[in-house]
Specification:
The complex is a heterodimer of chains A (about 375) and B (about 140). Chain A is mainly alpha-helical. Chain A contains 14 helices and 4 strands. Classes of the chains: A mainly alpha (about 375), B alpha+beta (about 140). Chain B: Belongs to the mitochondrion-specific ribosomal protein mL43 family.
């Protein structure tokens, strides 16, 4: 049985007549709300009188969310704040708001949706510029998978769990503000913005994998849970950005997200590596690649091994071992292509956002590649 | 386009390296149980009155909870991020002996205790590479 929530009645939802065929409500500017919310956490009640009445009801998180005074005395919340070494300028009520997902509270003035949208764009910006500068030759498909490996809901959800964030059994106003509030309901992408998909939402979903299919979309409860935990991580970055600024948010993304380990070489899948390698050599003006048998054992036995190296003139591009000559040649071609695509200027590569720092050294353009081989 | 990105369970989640970039203390909660009457809790009561406030102030990343457990020995329980708990019975211990136990719980990772046989445990491949019979000049027989 669904619980009645008298606290929600204040928001004026039940007092208004609502026809079944009513048009969609106009989109509210979320950044405006976010700004007001940030103000609310710091200003006194006397100052907030300037805010329209319909806004203030949503700002204090009264509709199902923890109130500002309760979040200040929650030991879980302050422990989480200290565990993540969050800046002191980030108040506890904002951290509490980041823990309320839209599935638990549909009021965008009280849930973490607006902060998460802000946070996703900041995370995506920093991760993308890092990937582009560190591996300038990554093919587009691999680039997207790498991006998903860093900022996808699975990664961010696991990261939030490893921060020690716990989920409440069921959302509600009586729940400790230090617990993540979410409900296993279907996530419909673009639901909150009148059917439009934001770019940030698109980056979290994969159209080919069926994530955007509303009827057959993510249905497993683990996926919903991942999205809920990920939204906390995203909203936290948004909150740090709005309270402590650009540098603090960048530092947080670098230390928590970019410090994770992703094996870039495992993301490649080649369709016709031999053809691609010869086209690459042609494009770059290298000599045509030649495969040479370098070593072999047990040709007539049940378990032969061939070692094939691929040469362009005198330069060895790569080598591979296989149980047949064809397989070894293909493996060698794949190794050569990976060696090309995984070129990196080094670990200390500079990214464009480094230039925001005061006294930064003069910018030198990073290596920009002409792109993958198109066959 | 002949290169695709692979989407597998392994590629979707990057590996966490706690301490590289950010360090998250793995002990997230500590529970202290005491008894007002029993003699085995004498040291625990002294610890709660004298040492615990300073310890809690020095470790804000841990949530502390204190509750009576009448007619039982005093217990300190650590709760960890990986979901495990570590209870330690501190009966008849002095406050400073209890502090040692509490520090042990704070610094623990929450994993089961295992014997480490290798000097280095790494998530990355060996830099030197494994030996291959197909490379080098080979050993003369």
């Amino acid at each position: 049985m669904k619980r009645l929530r008298p606290s929600r009645w204040n928001a004026g939802q039940l007092l208004q007549a609502r026809a079944a065929s009513a048009p969609l409500p106009p989109r509210r500017p979320f950044l405006h709300q976010c700004q007001l919310r940030c103000l609310e956490t710091e200003t006194s009640p006397a100052e907030t009188t300037a805010i329209p009445a319909n806004m203030t009801s949503s700002l204090d998180g009264g509709a199902g969310g923890p109130s500002s005074s309760r979040s200040r005395i929650s030991p879980k919340l302050s422990a989480l704040h200290a565990r993540l070494s969050l800046p002191k300028t980030l108040p506890l009520p904002t951290l509490a708001r980041a823990l309320i997902t839209p599935s638990a509270n549909r009021d965008h003035g009280a849930n973490n949706k607006s902060l998460a949208v802000l946070g996703v764009s900041i995370i995506n910006y920093h991760v993308t510029e890092y990937l582009l500068c560190k591996w300038p030759r990554l093919p587009m498909g691999v680039m997207y998978q790498a991006l998903r490996g860093y900022v996808g809901p699975e990664s961010l959800g696991e990261m939030a769990r490893r921060w020690g964030a716990e989920a409440a059994h069921a959302p509600g106003p009586e729940v400790d503000p230090g617990l993540l509030q979410w409900e296993p309901t279907r996530i419909v992408p673009g639901e909150n913005w009148g059917g439009y998909l934001t770019r940030e939402e698109l980056s979290g979903f994969d159209r080919r994998a069926g994530d955007l299919d509303v009827h057959n979309g993510p249905q497993k409860i683990e996926q919903w849970e991942n999205h809920a935990f990920a939204s906390f991580a995203q909203a936290l970055v948004g909150a740090i950005y709005s309270h402590s600024g650009r540098e603090a948010a960048k530092q947080f993304v670098e230390s928590h997200i970019l410090s994770r380990q992703l094996e870039m070489g495992t993301l490649f899948k080649f369709v016709n590596p031999l053809r691609e390698l010869s086209l690459l050599c042609k494009r770059e003006g290298f000599e045509a690649p030649i495969a040479r048998l370098e070593s072999e054992t047990g040709r007539m036995s049940r378990t032969p091994v061939f070692l094939v190296g691929i040469y362009s003139g005198k330069e060895k591009l790569g080598e591979g071992a296989g149980s047949s000559l064809q397989m070894a040649r293909k493996k060698a071609a794949m190794a050569s292509l990976k060696a090309w695509y995984l070129y990196s200027p080094g670990n200390k590569v500079r990214v464009p956002s480094d230039m925001f720092k005061k006294g930064a050294a003069k910018w030198r353009a990073p290596h920009i590649d002409c792109g993958e081989v198109i066959t | 386009m002949t290169v695709h990105g692979i989407r597998t369970a392994a590629s979707q989640t990057t590996k966490v390296k706690n301490g590289v970039g950010a360090f998250i203390l793995q002990c997230k909660k500590m529970e202290f149980h005491y008894c007002d009457w029993a003699g085995s809790s004498r040291g625990m009561n002294g610890f709660i009155k004298g040492i615990l406030p300073k310890f809690a102030a020095a470790n804000p990343q841990i949530e502390f909870s204190i509750s009576p457990r009448p007619n039982k020995h005093p217990v300190v329980t650590g709760h960890y991020i990986n979901g495990r708990t570590k209870p330690v019975c501190v009966r008849n211990l002095s406050p400073y002996e209890i502090l040692e136990k509490v520090e042990l719980l704070r610094d623990a990772s929450g994993e089961k205790l295992t014997k480490t046989n290798k000097a280095v445990t790494s998530t990355k491949d060996s830099v030197r590479g494994i030996w291959s019979p197909f490379h080098g000049k080979g050993e003369p027989v």
